[in-house]
User: Fold this.
Amino acid sequence: MNFSLDNKVALVTGANTGIGQAIAVGLAKSGAQVICASRSDCSQTLSMIDNAAALTLDFADPMAAREVFEHRQIDILVNNAGIIRRNDALDFSEEDWDAVMDTNLKALFFTCQAFGRAAIKRKSGKIINIASLLSLQGGIRVPSYTASKHGVAGLTKALANEWAVHNINVNAIAPGYIKTNNTQALQDDAMRNQAILERIPAGRWGNAEDIAGAAVFLASDAAAYIHGNILEVDGGWMGR
Assistant:
């Protein structure tokens, strides 16, 4: 089994911090040249990687990556960029709904589409979408995020069905409760934090680095026959 990513080029969106940063570093350690894409400064991530470049993309525009794959070969696409808005369903605004859906789902689809057009021509490619446990559950006070991540899971399976015949692997990772900026509000809520910890068999929140190994595996030839899978990396949460 070949876990090496030597001579591969990977584009990781939202690579400036958190899960995206950890995945970028993990792919680079396994041999990939990494392009760190984000609307924010990626200099911290670049300082952690020898063979990397930065690309400014703001996925508030769902078509931000439409030309990225036309003039360079990118073998691995990791769709990690995403946002979250929290509010009671009765008070949730249309603005917050649209912002989350545009970034988390619409931009992801059109980035996959642009990548797919190039990958189908060369008959190879790996797409790894970052889903969520809320691709599988309902959550609390995050209706647009939950809807978008359910969409990511469904879209992953739909694209896998179409593109597997072209030697393109489309899979997703569903992180559990990971210590990132997006989950800081939950970490800071003593009661919610305790309830979460009591549900996780591993007994701890995950770290962003816990996701990197799964991404390296799915990006490698060792995962060549895996298509349309939603890989839960959750400390056992979904097994309880």
